[in-house]
# Entry
Amino acid sequence: MIAVPSGRVDTALADVVTAHSDSRPQLVVESLSLDFKARHGTVSALEDVSLTVQRGEIVGVVGESGSGKSVMAYTVMGLVDPAARIRAGRITFGGTDLLKSSEAEMAEIRGRELAMIFQSPRTALNPIRKVGLQIEDVLRRHAAIRSQDLRRHAIQALERVRIPDPERRFDAYPFELSGGMCQRVMIAMALACSPAMLIADEPTTGLDVTTQAVIMDLIRDLSRSARMSTLLITHDLGLAGEYCDRIAVMHAGHVVEFAATETLLREPAHPYTQQLLAATPTPRSSVSTLTSIPGQLPDLRGNLPVCRFRHRCERALPLCDEPPLPWTRISADHVVRCRNPL
Amino acid sequence: MSAIDPIARSAFKPPVRASSALGTLAQNARYVFAENKLTLVAVVILVLLVVLAILGPWLAPYDPLATDGTARLAPPTLKHWFGTDALGRDMMSRVVVATRLDLGMAVSAVALSFTVGLALGASGGYFGGWLERGLGRVMDTIMAFPLFVLAMGIVAALGNNVLNIVIATMIINLPFYYRFARGEVNIRRDMGYVEAARMGGNSPMRALMHHIVPNILPPMMVQASLNMGWAILNAAGLSYIGLGVRAPTPEWGIMVSEGASNIISGEWWTFMFPGAALVLAVFSFNLLGDGLRDLLDPRRRT
Amino acid sequence: MSFVWKRFLGTVPTLFGIVVITFMLSHALPGDPAAYFAGPAANAESIAQIRTSLGLDKSLPAQFFKYVGDLAHGDLGTSLTTGQPVLVDLATRLPASIELTLCALLFAVGIAMPMGLLAATRPDSALDHFCRGTITVSSAFPTFFVGLLLVFVFYFSLDWSPQPVGRLNEMLYSPPVRVTGSYVVDSVIAGDFNVFRASLAQLILPSISLGLFALAPIARITRASMLAALEADFTRTARAGGLSGRTILMTYAFRNALLPIANILGMVFSFLLGSNVLIEQVFGWQGVGAYAVSAVLASDYAAVQGFVLMMALLYTLLNLTVDVASTLIDPRVRFEG
# Structure
């Protein structure tokens, strides 16, 4: 095992060649640290977060609520709350330094090169505007299409996400569509300009299980066929396990483990990952064999231990309290942030 | 009563107990006043107005009804701080003494609306059915009129005096209190602690009076203080056009009306001071209402 | 279309309630209604005459039916003070009041909405606090006081505004030929631009006085609903799509913010129609409000009753219009029926 200094994750994993990647990173997040200024104190939402997404691959970010996975996604998009302060780090997207880009430059990239879909698709769409027109809005903004062709392209976008009867559905309002349909519309909007990367923030949470599978299959198919990179944010490790090429596990603002899916599921290195696996239902497990993870997420304000999992961990050592918390490279496609990995 | 009640009481405590509520209210009040100096200013002004209302006649330097033919329309001087009106009466004395009538009319009207609205709304919200529907219809019909117009009509119908101004103002304010009380009772009617009280053998009336109403009083008080300013403006409006109060009674609305004819000749003090008194009173009540609302629910700030 | 019809039918119970209350207003009088309708100068004989001619000797339900029947024929009784049918009196004066109320509304919306929008895009800025402060203060001023203050400042002190003698200074100008009843519009139709300018100038101060109080609720709700819309999920999606700031602000946020704004318009209209009376008094505006005030003071009950009824009908119509207009903004309303 080789200890890798913080911030060098990108090169450590740059050699990873998965079945679906071109071995060139589409997105590199390096040592991102972010605070929120709250009424009483500062919330350390992200600390030294790093990960990469290669071209054409699907990377999952898994963690409990409050782990910072959505915050990270929003920071990549440049949509994070104005109360956020980025203390350190760099985000490189296809060669562009996103954190140094102006708002105007970001607005060019968003929707065209980098797209995002959200949880609760019904509320994420403009309730008083026809869905077709909302797709047209994105097209009009980024694509050089004549206005008379906009409608046709929007309908094509609806077809691509397999919405039946797209001409009629163009004129529908979000409240007339089911949750699954609304999510398809959002995907259509996101993919309308064939972006290089899609960030999906809990896209299936709240949908019923059958629809979840259908939507995730759709996302995977569209990603593969367009060779589009995808960052999937989810709390469901099982879901990530089924659809992602690599998975990053987050806890309390840290990325604690980052590995190819097979490796992570078979040989987790971080105690938290192991506990997550034990808590995730599989077809073979029964409710009695599921365990829950002891304790709660630490309060992200105030003094935090060096390893934020420390107080919930059975394997904690005195060494764990010694800063800084290093990255450990276990193999070519597996890094972990732990002093006492499994 | 004995075996079941302790369980009911311990398992489902109503959110507010009178004594602790006052304690936390005082704590919160100090916090809000520290945060929001304006609310404190409002309270001070209101206390001043109440003092004037109660002690007005004794504090006024002159007799508000005493005319003085030699000192007509005198501008503000050290002798007459607010000047004199067309009949030589001291403006400041009149403004000070009028406080009692203006505040009195508004407070009575609001108190009546509040009580009746609370009673009707609580009953409608709790018992529902045809009672709620019938009352709702009546309130909707009142709201179908532009409210000042309805007030005019009521005063015209019942007779041109101060009592009817109060009644008219009460009637047009009633729907707000009714709807608010009904809504709040509706929400709480199905809450755990009320069901527990009912199961414990409390009659609907007792459940309503002891458990629900104390909890809706705070938000209703906020409504009342926000409403007070409007009640003052309504009553003043009615007296401005000549309803209710007759000369020579000092009342801010009618004083503004009397002073209006002097604008063209430039004697601004005859209408400015009573008008300013109105603004001060309404403004303070509005600030108080805002402060109380922030006290009770900081999320509802606009 | 059926939706509009349904909404219209929904107002029928309200209209019935209005008629009942206006009926009650003149029949709740203490004493003998006939004496009131006959007027203070009547003797016992004319009172008796009035009693039979107005059907006041019949039972209350019978009187009510007569009342409704008369209304259906447009008979609102005769005014004691003018001697004319009340309906004619009101119809003659209504355009003046509508003109005033409309201008006040345009003023209020024209200032308050941009103010609220601006404040929402710069929350907690100095501008925001200034706007909110001004609004809080302005909503404490009685409408009639504002009117008088403006007259004092702009007419007496600065001499910018014309003499507040009503719609037109008839010593200097003559009213245009009546087409719509609005001097401003009719003078344009007649091509008389002097009268147009003069009548427009007369309209300014009253409109501002009347509209000022309505600034507060409109600005407040615009700001609040814009803030909510700007923080909503769909705005975040629009930003994620890289849509331009203007599209996000107007097409996404503002249109959604219009719904709560439309909802308080009812309250705003109630205030405008009511305070109309006060402003007409202050400026000597020859509209229905001034007519009503003199009617109330002269105990001209038929006229008062007719005024209250007309205002209530107008108000109901306005609310219906806003209701229907909301469906244009929010298609969901159509389905909730």
Notes: Residues 143 and 193 of chain A are 7 Å apart (CA to CA). The two ends of chain A are 12 Å apart (CA to CA). The domain at 2-113+195-336 of chain A is CATH 3.40.50.300 (Rossmann fold).
